Amino acid sequence: MSEPENLMKSPKFGIGVCRNNESPVHGLSEVVVGVLGGGQLGRMMCQAASQMAIKVMVLDPQENCPASSLSYHHMVGSFDDSTTVEEFAKRLNILCN
Questions:
Q1: N or C: which end of the chain has fewer CB within 10 A?
Q2: 47, 21 contact by CB (below 8 A)
Q3: Nearest-5° angle of CA 22, CA 93, CA 78?
């Protein structure tokens, strides 16, 4: 069985990644990137990461933040609570703020 035409092999992750925006591949890699803040920038990061098959987890105090619908996982919590941030970070390969 051959791969669909719009997929190519990613040299970094060895998985199918879309060449266009028709149907982005979401979260097939083992890389999990954590983002502190699920606002518009967090949402845009989720969109870009999805096209590269990278999972994005978001920590944000708002339950319905803009990135929550596009993220691999959304954790509701405060950035000021060190325990919450540590628990969030344990699930990640990379943490961005």
A1: N
A2: no
A3: 95
